[in-house]
Amino acid sequence: ARRGLPYLLASETEDSWTRRCPEDDKIIKDGLLGGMSAMWTDRYCYIFQCGAADASIGEKAGKSPNAGLMFLRSLDASFAVSLAGMIWPRAAVSAA
Question: Are 34 and 60 in contact (CB under 8 A)?
C-alpha cells in the first residue's frame, strides 16, 4: 500500500506537477498496448500559448515564442521544414 505524500515531483520545464507511483511502474508497462505522443507548437505562435496564458509565464520559464516570424505566408516552406524537423524525430522515438 502507498504511504505518505502522493509522490508529486516538481517539473523542470514548466509550472506543473506530475504524479509518480514507482510501485505501479511494472503493472503499467506490462499492460501497455499502445501510446500517444503530443507535440505543442506554441513556439511558433506570435504570442505566448496563442493567447491562452499570460506572457509573464513564458518569460519566467524561458519558453517565450521564438519562431513567430514563420506566421508569414512567405515562410510557409521554411515553417514546414522546421516543424517536420521537430515532429518526426520525436514521433519515431515515441513509436519505438
Answer: no
